Amino acid sequence: MAMQSTVETAVTLRARDGFVERWAKRLALLRESPTAMVGLGIILFWVAVAILAPVITVYPPNANDYAALANTKPSAAHWLGTDHTGRDIWSRLAYGARTVLTVAPIATAGAVALGIILGLAAGYYRGWTDVIITRVCDIILSFPVIILYMIILATVGASALNIILVVTGVKAPYIARIVRGCCMDIREREYVAAARMRGESGQFIMLMEILPNARGPIIVEACLRMGYTTITIGVLGFLGIGLPPPDPDWGGMVKDTYGMMSVWPHMSLIPCAAISSLVIGFNLLAVGLREIGLRD
Amino acid sequence: MWRYILKNLTYLIVTMVATSFIVFALTEATPGDVARKLLGAYATQEQVDSLRKEMRLDRPLLERYVEYVGNLLAGDLGYSLRYKTPVNDIIWDRLKNTGLLAAVAFCFIVPLSMLLGVLAGMREGSKTDRAILLGGTVLASVPEFAMGVFLASIFVVWLGWLPGTATLVPGEWSVASQMVLPVAVIVLFDMGYVVCMIRASMIETMQRPYIRTAVLKGMAYRQVILGHALRNAMLNPVTIILLQITYLVTGVVVVESVFAYPGYGRMMLEAALFKDIALIEVGVLVAVVVAVGTQILGDLGYRMLDPRIRL
């Protein structure tokens, strides 16, 4: 009994070592692409801001400092100035980063998961499954996404969960298309034929043989989708159908203040710069990852 | 050829029926029903009930849907609650305005992105390529509203060269000058994406054996690009460029909101916020026609350009 448990521990440990080593190598590879490193740097900056939000801000994000309204411009008291109701812009940015960086990854992860399932099923089983999945995906892809969001969020109501669900459904076809393409290529390989010969189930082949080998393009696409999901969340906030106020979200900050741009341009410029930089970070990382992937 | 067109028209009709039914069900069967929306929050429940009976809203969904489609086909698009006029009076005007915006933007996007995409993809990894790729990536990363704010803060607030709104009413600023910023935002945002697509296709073409042969036999590089690479490299992007029409017509909600442009997108946003059911339903149908229509057009264009595929 004791013997058995030691053996098991040894095996898992070795497997874990391999896992860590593999990822360490991948990260080292990342260092070869300056584009990817810049992108990763920007993303990590905002992740740090989001995590440390209570530590690095002085004011609560929804507190109105009416005394600051006399001079809303950036000052020693308010580093990035305040908005039109005297709320500290830096605090709202930092707490807004929390919103974006939780909603966007969850929504993208949902889209990736759903996309992988659909793509694998379409690419592996072919036939009618493929036809139906591809047709439905085509319709969603060609349909103006923003109109779809507007209808659903206007009829069902806007909440973080609804945004995540809608984004998942709308972005999944992008992933599915990529996965299907990879899957159709990989299913013809020898190791898949070998697995089939061993009598493995379709699910096992799809998840254990095909999926790991389609990893590269999926990671790149997921990274791109993170960027676009961030844009989507910003746009929804800007249009007033995003997360309900008063909690800070970057798009909503712009919506509230861009009418006053001729007087106080910094109120909308700063959140615009924040969201743009985060999306640029994701997209640069995607471009860098693709370059690295092409090299080996 | 005819069989192909017929097949796609059937597809268009099936998609329209399916989408319109989903939207109809979604908008009319959600909490806060039509009668309640018409009368407002302060009406009593009896008033709501009597109106529901009067409008015959108590019938089954399918029956009402069939009647609705009948009305649509007869040219009655319904009555807009938000604008207090028949949908017919508002939607065509708005579509015309958006069409204008889309057409002007399209005329800039296509030649500019083709030029930049080919320039970049011609020599992968060169300095020009790196610059265009990075520029395109950054431009495609800036959300439209942020791009609008950036451009407006420079050209409206700082330099004072252009108006910050595009209401299409000639006043202090001419209509042409009002169009500059909305068009610029759309072109910059959309171009980043299209350039990257054309670049990718160009790179792929340049790696083909026939390009290698042409270069090795001593053909002028210019001739290789113009004579051999260009037409083949344009095959895939044609579909992508045509798909941009969908975005241009129905996806410019944000740009229209930033600049208060009286177009289709802003109308749809207001309709959605106001729960203006009649307008939403017709607007979505328009979007579906545009989306599926351009998809079919793109498919046709692809088949015409590629002699290997016969209709």
Annotation keywords:
heterodimer, A: mainly alpha, 0% strand, disordered N terminus, B: 311 residues, mainly alpha, MetI-like fold, two-stranded antiparallel ribbon, 14 helices, flat
N→C terminal distance of chain B = 5 Å
Low-confidence stretches of chain B: none
Q: Compute the CA-based radius of gyration of chain A.
A: 23 Å
> In CATH's first tier, which class of chain A applies?
Mainly Alpha
> Mind telling me which CATH architecture of the largest domain in chain B this is?
Orthogonal Bundle
Strand order of the largest sheet of chain B: 1-2
Task: Give the CA-CA distance, first to last residue of chain A.
Answer: 45 Å
Task: Fill in the CATH topology of chain A.
Answer: MetI-like fold
Specify the number of helices of chain B: 14
Shape of chain B: flat
CATH architecture of chain A: Orthogonal Bundle
Number of helices of chain A: 12
Instruction: Round the mean pLDDT of chain A to the nearest integer and report it.
Output: 81
Our count of domains of chain A comes out at 1
Overall 3D form of chain A: elongated
Largest interface: A-B, 42 and 51 residues
Q: What sequence of helices (H) and strands (E) makes up the elements of chain B?
A: HHHHEEHHHHHHHHHH
Strand content of chain A: under 5%
Computed structural class of chain B: mainly alpha
Element pattern of chain A in H and E: HHHHHHHHHHHH
